[in-house]
Amino acid sequence: MTNEEKIERLKVHEPDPYNDATAKAYVEARGLCTYCCQDGFSSPAGFWSSHIDHLLPKNKYPELKLEPLNCVYCCLRCNIWKGSMDPLEHWKQSGEDVSDPLKFLRERRQEIIGFVKLWLKEKRSRDAEEYQKITALIRDS
Ligand SMILES: [Zn+2]
């Protein structure tokens, strides 16, 4: 079955059909979190906690909420940790023209994904240190 056929089948899936953006994100990722590569299809719990992340956050770019280029499949943890972080701020601070977010997504989507992956990796490492400090504090007798 081709990817296009898989997408079309998800769009008519019962009882809950996927929208175009979500179907494309699922098929593109094949169950692997776009950011950390965790296999979301390895268990029912992983599957049911799978998320669609908006590369450019939907609260800031509501017009891109259903844009397939803006949607990526990811795990619950990565989606929560990314939150409403806007990767375009990185390019804006570097002086790049990001006045047309959709054009930027079309031309630089893989770079944006790479930036988010790195940002999350650094955040995970800071959060792991915080977890250890708090756990030691709470459980120290
Ligand atoms: Zn992940």
Question: Could you write a compact summary of the structure shown?
Answer:
The chain is mainly alpha-helical and 141 residues long. Helix content is 54%, strand content 6%. Helix 1 crosses helix 2.
Description:
With 141 residues, the chain is mostly helical. The chain has one domain. Helices cover 54% and strands 6% of the residues. It contains six helices and two strands; from the N terminus they run H-H-H-E-E-H-H-H. It has a two-stranded antiparallel sheet with strand order 1-2. Helix 1 crosses helix 2 (20-29). The longest helix is centred in the C-terminal third of the chain and has 39 residues, at 101-139. It starts with a helix and ends with a helix. The model has no long low-confidence stretch (mean pLDDT 95). The structure holds zinc ion. Zinc ion binds next to helix 4.
Low-confidence stretches: none
DSSP strand tally: 2
Q: Which ions, cofactors or small ligands are bound in this entry? A: zinc ion
Strand order of the largest sheet: 1-2
Class based on secondary structure composition and strand pairing: mainly alpha
Oligomer: single chain
Helix content: 40-55%
Percent of sequence in beta strands: 5-15%
Largest sheet: 2 strands, antiparallel
Query: Mean of the pLDDT scores?
Result: 95
Summed up, the domain count is 1
Spell out the helices and strands N to C: HHHEEHHH
